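[Meeting: bench + compute handoff]

Bench side (C.D.) handed over the final construct sequence. Compute side (W.E.) agreed to return the predicted structure before the next meeting so the bench team could plan truncations. Sequence as handed over:
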Amino acid sequence: MCSSHQADQWMLCPQCDLMTQLPSLTPGSKANCPRCNTTLVMNWDEPRKRPTGYALAALFMLVLANLFPFVNMHVAGMSSEITLMRIPQVMVSVDYSSLATLFMLFVQTVPALCMVIILLLVNSVRLSVPLKRLLARVLFQIKAWGMAEIFLAGVLVSFVKLMAYGDIGIGTSFIPWCLFCLLQLRAFQCVDRRWMWERIAPLPALPAKPIAGVSGLQQNLRSCGCCTAVLAAEQQVCPRCGTVGHVRRRHSLQWTMALLLTSLLLYIPANLMPIMITDSLGSKITSTIMAGVVLLWSEGSYPVAMVIFVASIMVPSLKMLAIGWLCWDANGKSKPHQDSERMHKIYEVVEFVGRWSMIDVFVIAVLSALVRMGQIMNIYPATGALLFALVVILTMFSAMTFDPRLTWDRVSNKTQEEPDIAGK
């Protein structure tokens, strides 16, 4: 084995598996993978104070956002006012506890839990090493499921939809919620995964002398997907964080395709079945996703109609096509280098935009909670909303189970074969 003090100088890219020797970084700089341009490590100025300040401020704003009224509406002399906690309560009252659970998890619980974990790990809090390992593993596994900013976008879309029916106003907690969304995003940005794990446990010694510019697969090495430690390919359990892993995610393509097909089967009824029911003066009007887009367009709300169309129709459809293409390409025989770069960009886009399809679900949640006007008008969620939420969740899981390193393995294999061909 190589000396453990050299381990902090080497890193396998989590996206393309290229072995890279990390340079000395000045505060405020970062190191990117030379092949796929993925950010490997960032050297933040004041790495403790920045995330601590942002996380504390975010939690304070979250408390304020839940204490006071959020938004209000006035229609024909009647008024309705809601708090953030009122939204899941309405979902439960109309027998949609599943949507209430998703709202509480994605909008409130996950972002708040991440902020608390950041505070505990970046500061010198007296915790046992196993507990710190558990918290770090939880943080990096659930951070993608925080959707506070997507909910905020859904609230803004709801305002445009409701302007045709009455006067819409913001409550005292609206500005704190906006600040919470910005602060929690900034707290995430200021936390470097590699720096955090160095504060929890030291890197294990390198199993062999690494070669820069060569994939880990060719060197019989693998990267821990949780703490970025470089391990021997046959070593399944990381001695640093305890995560079980393999050279490549086991049955990655099978899991990805199974989740993708399931989401596709749900996507069809999600678009055909109503996602929302409007009860106005005794008459009930059902609305599908596409019908809502057409209605907004006909009323002249072109930007909002485009946002809903892109987020709820185009993004899920293109995401499923893209994931299917990624799986096909991982087994393909096309030009390796050119295709790998293109497919990597597609994968990055898929990971980034996938969560934003939840915007329509959050719009329905806000409308259902706010529009409670007795006999004048009431809005309820419908089965299509739950099915659509499941589609978004399944496509997110399918993107997570896909191993992006598979798209680069053909480049490594071709490079490995070239000396044999030249020697013949």
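W.E. noted at the follow-up: The radius of gyration is 24 Å. C.D. will use this when planning the next construct.
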